[in-house]
Write a structure and sequence with these properties.
The chain is α+β, with helices and mostly antiparallel strands. Helices cover about 15% and strands about 35% of the residues. The protein has a single domain, classed as 3-Layer(aba) Sandwich (Rossmann fold), CATH 3.40.50.300. The chain has helices at about 30-40, 125-135; strands spanning about 5-15, 15-20, 40-45, 50, 55, 65-70, 70-75, 80-90, 105, 115.
Amino acid sequence: MNDPVQIHASCAARHEQGILLVGPSGAGKSDLLLRLVDAGYDLVADDRVCVHDGWASAPPRLAGLLEVRGIGIIRMGWRERVRIAAVARLVTPQGYAARLPRGPGCDKVTGRPEFLLDPAQPSAVARVGLVLDCVAGRAHLLDEGQV
């Protein structure tokens, strides 16, 4: 059994799948989390996430809090914990290689599939949904040779 680790990230849940949003300060984690919650996802944690044996939860002091820049800190309903299905590493368009890598990598902290995601894209929420669908086997990420 691994010891709990607290990381600088945010987390949302769709049904039984958690998506961990990671990136540097100012990358757009809280803003994307707000859009995910608005789209029907559950808030799990904002700003700090406790990761333990593949599960994500909020540190007790931050449970149910979401920081919305320009408005303030909002208290809202949240899910106590969720199993992490995938990690979205938030990058700017300059953070992408000239060509995106084929398929996901593997996140070092969680061991879960890791995808690069530009949170400023209008399709960012839909892309999170596709990532979770691929991880769950409801959609299939094809290799270049399969197209």
